[in-house]
Design goal:
Helices cover 46% and strands 25% of the residues. The protein has helices at 12-22, 31-45, 50-94, 131-134, 139-149, 190-212, 231-237, 241-244, 249-253, 259-270, 319-337, 357-363, 367-370, 384-395, 441-466, 485-491, 495-498, 503-507, 513-521, 571-631, and strands spanning 98-103, 108-112, 154-160, 163-173, 179-188, 216-221, 226-229, 279-285, 291-302, 308-317, 341-346, 352-355, 401-409, 415-427, 430-439, 470-474, 480-483, 529-537, 543-554, 560-569. The termini are far apart.
């Protein structure tokens, strides 16, 4: 990156700084100091005993040995230092990069390396110049150098011209630990950085494709772990990317019912025992627990040895499409198998384009024949003009559907009643008419029978309404659904009022409630008619004696549903019965009196008879005696 040359002999400061950075300085004591030390030792020896002198001698020997070892090590270190300096000079001079030393004030002290050529500099060309002046247009680089002067080790990438450099800045210190500059190394990294930028662009381009592609992309390794998922895949599954990556695909995102089967197939694919299925459809399990049907296109990727190490699959959510296809299939089955006639025909020419089996069978025409026909060919009552007028509201969107009844003529000229349901549909950029035809011949017959039945029921209803006997339709809870005029006249309430009151609370005197309840309990599924007498309370408060005949309707579980009551006002009958009762009582009294009189007369008669009989016996006795006397 940066350029400078080591100026040997011309810059003592530079030389000392370079040496300070690369070696440890060792200095021996000067001779005068050694001499003074020697005299001091001799003076001390004169004051010591022999034993002390021997010990001192031993200590001196050890010290001499240490000094000799230190001297040898110093010489070796000096030699190693010289070798290191030579290696450093060769390395710096022949380096493909750029090695430089910058003083704390920003002055270049060293600039070496073949990499200088790339930026148009020679070794040593910028020595003595200020880095802050030379590269004032690169403020970020200068800021990072200042951070190095403050003790940080920095590495960065810098572009100078068309060249990219990868830089390392290291703080350099003197013997006192003070930062006196920085040592820098810059390597031409243009090719690597451009390759990296290209790779980043390609990666971004690929990521952009992954982000915008409207299919699910998922990559799984040989252990089933998800290595890649795109946003569409996250959207379909309902999870975030973080919730999917590094999860086992089979255990977390496949329905349990076929999870093990798919695992077994995947195991064989990764083992190279079978080929990957390039297209497959299966359900996946979403975060909400729902299943979605995915159409997969699969591929495998291999390592350098040809071993399968993963799969990449693109999947399209075909859940709704499948449902639509199933609906179409169901429609086709309905269209084909429907017992009703179904026609499709052109909205302009009215020519048939399709007709189901029921239509062909009922009309007697084949599909080939129908393709040459229009509805006008078998609907006698319509002309082209009248039919166009009929369908005009559909063309104008005034109506969505037209329903009409008409008569169709079969191929054999027989006629049948038809109910037509006609709609205008827009299908595959074309307007077509769809007609569903119901053969209502039988229905017409049924309607005629029903009409006759309704007429009879109406007549019967009129008879009921006009009947002199009171009739009411009611429920066990006391509600009245309907009644005739006679019932309303009997109770004094209008028919409207009677629908709002309870017959067992308003019309029935309290003393009759238990009796009525017992009578109703006699009703059952097998005994649905009862008859009894009770009283009603007229709206005016008058008590009316009545006779009730109930016929009831039960369900299969013997629950009373409703009943019909036939009510007769028996006031007159009760009056007659009362009169008859009075006559009966009077007759009984007369009978009693006559009986007493007869008993009296019977007694007298009995007495008379007794007298008569006594006389007769006396006479007979006398006659017998006379006869006896005469016999004598």
């Amino acid at each position: 990156m940066l350029g400078c040359h080591f100026e040997r002999g011309t810059n003592e400061k530079s030389v000392n700084f370079a040496r300070d950075l690369s070696r440890l300085h060792l200095t021996d004591r000067d001779d005068s100091e050694a001499q003074r030390h020697k005299f001091k030792i001799m003076e001390n020896l004169g004051n010591k005993t022999n034993e002390e002198l021997l010990k001192e001698i031993d200590l001196l020997k050890e010290r001499i040995l240490e000094l000799e070892k230190f001297k040898i090590k110093s010489e070796q270190a000096e030699l190693a230092l010289k070798e290191s300096e030579e290696k450093f000079k060769i390395l710096v001079t022949n380096s493909e990069g750029i090695v430089y030393i910058i003083g704390r004030d920003g002055t270049f002290l060293l600039s070496e390396g073949r990499g200088l050529t790339a930026i148009g500099l020679k070794p040593g060309q910028v020595v003595g110049e200020s880095v802050f002046e030379l590269y004032k247009d690169s403020p970020e680089m200068l800021d990072e150098m200042r951070r190095t002067f403050n003790g940080e080790t920095i590495n960065n990438e810098v572009k100078i011209g068309d060249i990219y450099f990868r830089n390392w800045y290291t703080p350099q210190k003197n013997d006192k630990g003070e930062i006196v500059g920085l040592l820098g190394l810059s390597v031409n990294a243009t090719e690597q950085i451009l390759d990296k930028q290209t790779a980043v662009k390609e990666k971004n381009k690929a990521q952009q494709y992954l982000d915008i592609v409207d299919v699910m992309l998922v990559s799984v390794d040989s252990d089933g772990i998800v290595k890649l998922i795109n946003p569409k895949g996250c959207e379909i599954l309902g999870y975030s990317e973080e919730e999917i990556l590094r999860k086992n695909w089979f255990d977390n995102f496949l329905p349990e019912r076929y999870r093990e089967d798919v695992k077994e197939v995947a195991k064989k694919v990764f083992a190279g025992e079978m080929e990957s299925v390039k297209y497959y459809e299966n359900e996946i399990l979403t975060k909400s627990g729902n299943e979605k049907l995915i159409a997969w296109h699969n591929a495998v990727y291999k390592d350098a040895n040809g071993k399968v190490i993963g799969t990449i699959s693109s999947g399209e959510d075909i859940t709704e499409r499948k449902k639509s296809e199933e609906k179409i299939q169901r429609f086709n089955r309905i269209f084909k198998d429907s017992l009703n006639e179904i026609f499709l025909f052109n909205s302009e020419t009215y020519l048939f384009t399709q007709a189901n089996s029921a239509a062909q069978k009922n009309l007697g025409y084949s599909m080939e024949e129908l393709l040459e026909m229009t509805p006008l060919d078998f609907i006698p009552e319509f002309t082209a003009k009248s039919f166009t007028k009929l369908v005009k509201p559909l063309h104008n969107k005034e109506k969505q559907k037209i329903v009409l009844e008409t008569v169709h003529q079969r191929k054999d000229k027989s006629l049948y009643n038809a109910e037509v349901h006609l709609q205008l549909l827009h299908f595959e950029n074309e307007n077509i008419f769809a007609a569903i035809i119901l053969d209502v011949t039988e229905r017409k017959k049924d309607e005629k029978v029903l009409l006759q039945s309704l007429q009879r029921e109406q007549i019967q209803a009129d008879i009921v309404r006009r009947a002199p006997i009171s009739i009411a339709f009611g429920y066990p809870d006391g509600r009245l659904e309907n009644c005739n005029k006679a019932f309303a006249d009997l109770t004094g309430y209008s028919e409207k009022e009677l629908k709002t009151i309870s017959w067992n609370e308003v019309l029935t005197p309290p003393k009759w409630n238990d009796i009525v309840a017992k009578e109703l309990q006699k009703l059952s599924y097998n005994n649905h008619v009862i008859q009894y007498e009770q009283e009603f309370i007229h709206k005016s408060g008058t008590i009316i004696p009545i006779e009730l005949v109930f016929t009831a309707k039960f369900d299969e579980e013997n629950n009373l549903l409703h009943f019909i009551g036939f009510i007769t006002d028996i006031t007159e009958r009760k009056l007659v019965e009362d009169e008859l009762e009075k006559h009966r009582e009077h007759l009984e009294e007369l009978v009693k009196e006559r009986t007493v009189e007869l008993e009296e007369k019977n007694k007298k008669l009995d007495n008379a008879m007794k007298v008569f009989v006594g006389r007769e016996l006396t006479i007979r006795d006398l006659q017998n005696k006379i006869k006896a006397l005469k016999g004598k």
